[in-house]
Design brief:
Blueprint (H helix, E strand, L loop, with lengths): L3 H52 L9 H48 L1
Length: about 110
């Protein structure tokens, strides 16, 4: 059986590990947030360019194969970026859920100790 001092040392070590994981997760979420904002700005710019082209009639009126190809590339790029954002958000959510479960388990363990 553990002495009180050994238990305290073990709890401090667990606390330090959890703090480190929370810090890493927080940094990861901040990085994802910054990337999300940057990608949103780029997507808005590209979408505005695509809309401007359509309004000018270049893409919609068959203003040449080059304009249509560019519009297709832009739409495909937007689709890929949106999928990347979705995956990043999903990964961040999974990490948060895992951390929450670990913290709940730790809190429950401390109540019984």
């Amino acid at each position: 059986q553990m002495s009180f001092e050994e238990w305290r040392a073990a709890m401090r070590q667990t606390d330090a590990q959890l703090q480190g994981e929370v810090g890493r997760l927080g940094s990861g979420i901040e990085d994802l947030g910054a990337r999300h904002v940057a990608l949103q700005a780029e997507l808005r710019t590209r979408l505005a360019a695509l809309e401007a082209g359509a309004m000018a009639g270049r893409a919609a009126a068959g203003g040449g194969g080059q304009a249509e190809a560019q519009a297709h590339q832009t739409v495909e790029y937007l689709r890929q970026q949106l999928e990347a954002l979705r995956q990043n958000a999903s990964q961040a959510g999974a990490s948060l859920s895992e951390l929450a479960a670990r913290l709940e388990g730790e809190a429950a363990a401390r109540k019984t100790a």
